[in-house]
## 1
Amino acid sequence: GEIVWQKFSDDFGLDDAMEGQGGTLFQIGWLNRHLAITKYSSSGELLQRHPISDDNKWQLVHPPIPRATVRAIGAQTSSETDVVDFDEKLNGPTHSYKLKNAGFKKALEQLDGSVVIFGSQFLRGAATASIALLSKGGTSNSFLIEPQNKSLWFEDAVPAAHPNEFATVRSVGGDATLAWISVK
């Protein structure tokens, strides 16, 4: 392929990125030694930047269709997670949702605006693979994926062909398990 544009700096440290509406790019990463959500134009020019807590792990919630706004998920503690919404200029958060036991490796938004979070729950000091659901209205549920003692995390997930279905990768010791999962 042909490189359309690229940026380089010793200060960049990428945690997550995704395409936004109109070919823009959202990125969570380090810029000038501070963690931030950054929005770039389709030509690579900086449009907006919003600092976020350097103390927490953050990731973008990937929507099914690129859009102008962005949602991020951040781990506050091993058992508390925030989902925060920002507007198209990265003002905000415009909404914030607090979840319990929703450790994350991948967060995907569905067409109805709900969020499916693949990761783990932290129970009795250990991680167990789980899926958390955050409805558009803000209620949440999480579900353990058995067997508990052999599955620490979901490592990744992508939308599958049908709504509410996902192809997943889960770590199991030194191996991995692939699963096609329906979430409702």
Note: The mean pLDDT is 86.
## 2
Amino acid sequence: AARCALGLAHLHARGVAHLDLKPDNLLASARGDVKIADFGIAEVVSRAGKYRAAYEGTAAYMSPERFDTERSLQGDGDEEGPVDPYAADVWGLGVTVLELLMGRYPLLPAGQKPSWAALMCAVCFGELPALSDGAASPELRSFVAACLQKDHRKRASVSELLVHPFVA
């Protein structure tokens, strides 16, 4: 998680949003090095924070705001303000960490077929799985909760994650 967050910090500092962060796009070495791969839908974000927020990527790892392409594309004129393009990467990191902990995709019940509709409902409206004290440390639970805020404005930034007790 820490090394992935460092990679995201590097990208975000250069104005790049990956937009498809998931286990398949993280390459880990036996030494523990982590590389972020597959920049097929990555976007260079303009200085004004604008980016093409089209519905692209892997639905299971898309953040809630990315399912609402009208809001994502025209968000700078509404009362909520523009969508933070980097928040989608934080969401993907949170889902990935939770999946590594649980050993399966975490936002659907075990065995449920991951159709687009099921994924959209789970991501946008579903509850996060409850993690018992024995299943995860308080720091890990707090880290995942900071990543998986449904409202992108409440989601932690990568810089906040890098000082989080789980990775610090």
Note: The beta strands are 16-17, 26-28, 34-36, 43-44.
